[in-house]
Design goal:
The chain is mostly helical and 116 residues long. The chain contains seven helices and no strands.
């Protein structure tokens, strides 16, 4: 399943958190987002996660999801340098506040992964 391949435990936590209140939403995430969309040909998982990190940064209002997808990018071969560059690239499209918020999320993810 793509969600396990990309997000590992974090993806499972998202789905588990919906079981008691919105199990159908969890099913839609699995079936549509990770079943239909992430399984399409044309882009590898790393590229898909790079695009998703950029989009979440540009939205500027989805910090929890940005964190999950930064983890996902790192899980499928992305680097911390790539994460920072993707977020920095969003300055021109989403503005400094969105990029600064994205960097704050990235900092927290990097620290979590190194145990700091």
């Amino acid at each position: 399943m793509k969600i396990a391949e990309i997000d590992g435990h974090a993806g499972e936590q998202v789905i588990d958190s919906l079981r008691d209140i919105a199990p159908d939403l969890g099913r839609y995430i699995i079936e549509y987002s990770f079943g239909d969309i992430y399984s399409r040909p044309g882009l590898d998982l790393k590229t898909r996660e790079m695009v998703t990190v950029a989009m979440c940064t540009a939205l500027g209002t989805v910090a929890p999801q940005l964190g999950v997808h930064i983890h996902g990018l790192l899980n499928v071969g992305g680097t911390e340098t790539e994460v920072v560059e993707i977020i920095t690239q969003m300055v021109g499209y989403a503005g400094f506040p969105a990029a600064l918020n994205g960097i704050a999320v990235a900092r927290a993810v990097f620290a979590e992964r190194t145990g700091d």
